[in-house]
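Dear Dr. H.,

I hope your travels went smoothly. While you were away I took the liberty of generating a structure for the chain from your last submission, since the lab meeting agenda had it listed for discussion. I wanted you to have the full record in hand beforehand rather than looking at slides cold. The sequence, exactly as received, is reproduced here:
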Amino acid sequence: MSTLVSLIILAMLLPFLYFIYEASIKGVPFLPTPMKAAKKMLKLAKIKKGDIVIDIGCGDGRLVILADKLYQANAIGFELSPPIYFYAKLLNFFKKNETNAKILFADSRKVDLSKADAIVMYMLPKPLREFWKDKLEEDLKPTARVVSYAFSIQGWNHAHKEESIGEENIGPIYVYEMDKIY
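The corresponding predicted structure, in token form, is as follows:
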């Protein structure tokens, strides 16, 4: 009986332990963007039909699926965590008749982002500060927009900040236009 209880407790702890692993090793755990925030992020990104929209840590792919579905964008998400990537692919598979969004298993830190019209992300402050700020400045064209959920990009001037969304107090959302970040 005690072995069964131990196995049940271990099974319940595994997702939590994986979350800790992701956060400590990679610096970015899987935290899904709330659906209301995802829709608002895409609206604030001013996406037009055919725009290239990239989610640099797409998790379950909800932002790229929505970008394709709502705006007919060329939406691409990159995910580095194998279990989360396969989960996203599975979700995308079941929506195949609804979306052309692409979810790729890749390290977005090594991807050329120069063709992106919009970057959407839910990234923690440390990776934003230590890597993404410089990468986005180097790669993105002056007309590109960057939309960050929950955390600002230190040192950049945002074009718009949405404090909260609805009664759930979801937010903030920061919108940056690359030609106006300084």
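Two observations you may find useful: The two ends are 63 Å apart (CA to CA). The first strand starts at residue 52 and ends at 55.

With kind regards,
E. W.
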